[in-house]
Write a structure and sequence with these properties.
The complex is a heterodimer of chains A (459) and B (102).
Chain A lengths: L2 H20 L6 H21 L7 H24 L5 H26 L4 H29 L10 H22 L4 H19 L7 H23 L2 H24 L4 H6 L5 H7 L12 H9 L3 E6 L1 H5 L3 H13 L3 E6 L9 H8 L7 E3 H4 L8 E5 L8 H4 L18 E6 L19 E5 L2 H13 L2
Parallel strand pairs in A: 1-2, 1-4, 2-3, 4-5, 5-6
Chain B lengths: L1 H9 L1 H19 L6 H11 L4 H10 L5 H30 L6
Classes of the chains: A alpha/beta (459), B mainly alpha (102).
């Protein structure tokens, strides 16, 4: 490795650290992303031109073609995707990173099969790369809605035994038979299958946690391949992503008041919970109309909007912003209450609302908005369900018991917009809808809100 | 056991780097507001695309008649660069929306 290349890798590593740091603040985040992007570009160009191997020109041509194809594809996918589809896209890209790591391991297995340290690194890269590859693709398919949760009988036991067997198998190859290509292909196939088995039983609401975990694993896979090549930028960059991803995973778990093992082994959001809770609440619900709701909102002095993923699915972000502006013009104090896991990922709702030009100082986080609910005249819940479910406070048998929620039931009036009485994403009944202060405004979020806006305009 | 001791003494510098990098990663992320979790996850995902460097090394060192290595390396470079370019672009698009409105 030439000294210039080493220096460039050092610079890239610094841009990664600075970039990650800057990503942590709203004002500097965009610049931070740009800085690490430039660093990454430098590292790629430098790797291609500043090495000391003899490289045939056909290899250069192939590298150029591969980079061109991948850049165009990556750019087009990233530019075309709708903001609501962001979580599954991150998962898809992450899977590609894992796939890249597993292919590297596969190629290098033949070249480094004598040294124990190197063989174990390669085996680890293949196992982790494969798990993140298929795992992320499954997570992508699930968030996409093209795949449901599948729970095989005793899946926890099967999965745990499977991963242990996988590790033992890898260790066996390292110790006794580090030249057998047949065994390495078997290991590859088994790891790919494990990635599928690992993600299929995990409930929809827990998907973001899993994606974050898989993201962290891709970082670790990159770091492991870095050890193989004694390459500092891969090693440090990979470990940074690995540890940052892991801590982010824990932060997300904490926001949902769940432990990581509960997410992985606890299978949540399935049919059992739904059937157990049905019929327990009962009582009558109060329906309302757009014009009644408009009157309520018009004469309120403080309104809090609670947006959920249902709002985004109905593409109603722009209408809700229009409603907010209209009410503000009439002198109503309007803000948005953002639950940490609103949307499909923490912070997803902020991105969606920001896209429709909602100013981010109007987005209030849970801990700051909760004390304000008692002084709030009207809470408008749009397409959110589990994050406002009082069962989290007072029903120990509920699967979301203990999850911090938005205490909307403390407000004077609550208007809930939902398409139907179906249970939320976690599949559980919500007693808020039966509260005396609650009125239900049924209908698709976009058309219901448009109607509301029109009523308000006529007042 | 001996092998473990040998591994540690041979790779002491590496272990120091790993441990310090782990702490930096944790410290960088620990106090980030939840508003930024999605862009952060996406940005970190783009960084994990650094694995592309390994894919490039595979391609650079492959013999021109080693079609298996060249082929697998080719796919690895494509997957890696999609991760890098897509990751950074999508993060940028998300962050574009966080600009302060007056």
């Amino acid at each position: 490795m030439t000294i210039t290349l080493s220096i460039i890798y050092l610079i890239t590593t610094i841009t990664f650290v600075i970039g990650l740091k800057m990503l942590g603040h709203p004002e500097t985040a965009k610049k931070g992303n740009l800085i690490s992007g430039v660093g990454m570009g430098l590292a790629i160009v430098a790797t291609i031109f500043l090495h000391d191997f003899e490289v045939p020109s056909i290899n250069y041509i192939l590298i150029g073609v591969a980079l061109l194809i991948g850049t165009i594809l990556g750019y087009l996918i990233a530019m075309k995707v709708a903001m609501t589809k962001m979580p599954e896209l991150v998962s898809l890209f992450n899977g590609f990173g894992g796939g890249s790591a597993l292919l590297i391991g596969l190629v290098e297995f033949g070249n480094f099969s004598t040294d124990t340290t190197q063989t174990s690194t390669i085996i680890a890269a293949i196992i982790i790369g494969s798990i993140t590859f298929t795992g992320s693709l499954i997570a992508w398919a699930k968030l996409n809605g093209s795949m449901k949760d599948i729970r095989l009988p005793n899946y926890n036991l099967i999965n745990n035994l499977f991963i242990l067997a996988l590790i033992a198998f890898g260790a066996y190859i390292v110790m006794y038979d580090s030249t057998s290509l047949t065994l390495i292909y078997l290991l590859l196939a088994a790891s790919l299958v494990y990635g599928v088995l690992f993600v299929i039983p995990i409930g929809g609401a827990d998907m973001p946690v899993v994606i974050s975990l898989l993201n962290s694993l891709t970082g670790i896979a990159a770091a492991i391949t870095g050890i193989l090549y004694d390459n500092m930028v891969m090693m440090v960059g990979g470990i940074l992503v690995g540890s940052a991803g892991l801590i982010l995973t824990f932060i997300m778990c904490k926001a949902m008041n769940r432990s990581l093992s509960n997410v992985i082994f606890g299978a949540f959001g399935g049919g059992d919970a739904a059937t157990a809770a049905v019929g327990k609440t009962g009582g009558t619900i109060k329906k309302t109309t757009a014009s009644d709701s408009a009157i309520l909102l018009n004469y309120a002095s403080k309104v809090v909007i609670v947006p959920g993923y249902g709002l985004a699915v109905a593409q109603a972000q722009h209408v809700i912003h229009e409603l907010e502006e209209l009410l503000t013009k009439k002198g109503v104090d309007v803000s948005y209450a953002i639950h940490p896991v609103a949307g499909r990922m923490p912070g997803h709702m902020n991105v969606l609302l920001a896209e429709s030009n909602v100013s981010y100082d109007k987005l209030i986080e849970m801990d700051n908005i909760n004390p304000q609910f008692p002084n709030t005249d009207v809470v408008l819940v749009v397409g959110a369900n589990d994050v406002v479910n009082p069962a989290a406070h007072n029903d120990p048998s509920s699967p979301i018991y203990g999850m911090p929620i938005l205490d909307v039931e403390n407000a004077k009036h609550i208007i809930v917009n939902k398409r139907s009485m179906n249970a939320g994403y976690a599949g559980i009944e919500n007693e808020l809808f039966f509260n005396q202060k609650t009125s239900m405004l049924f209908g698709d979020a976009k058309s219901a809100l448009t109607e509301l806006v029109n009523e308000l305009k006529n007042m | 056991m001996n092998e473990l001791v040998e591994f540690i003494s041979n790779n002491l510098q590496l272990l120091y780097i790993l441990i310090l990098a782990i702490f930096i990663g944790v410290e960088l992320i620990k106090n980030v507001p939840s508003v930024l979790h999605t862009p952060l996850m996406s940005g970190a995902n783009a960084l994990s695309g650094v694995v592309i460097v390994g894919a490039l090394l595979v391609m650079l060192q492959a013999k021109p008649d080693d079609y298996l290595s060249l082929g697998l390396g080719f796919v690895a470079v494509i997957l890696g660069i999609i991760n890098v370019v897509g990751g950074f672009v999508v993060t940028d698009r998300m962050l574009q929306m966080f600009k302060k409105k007056k």
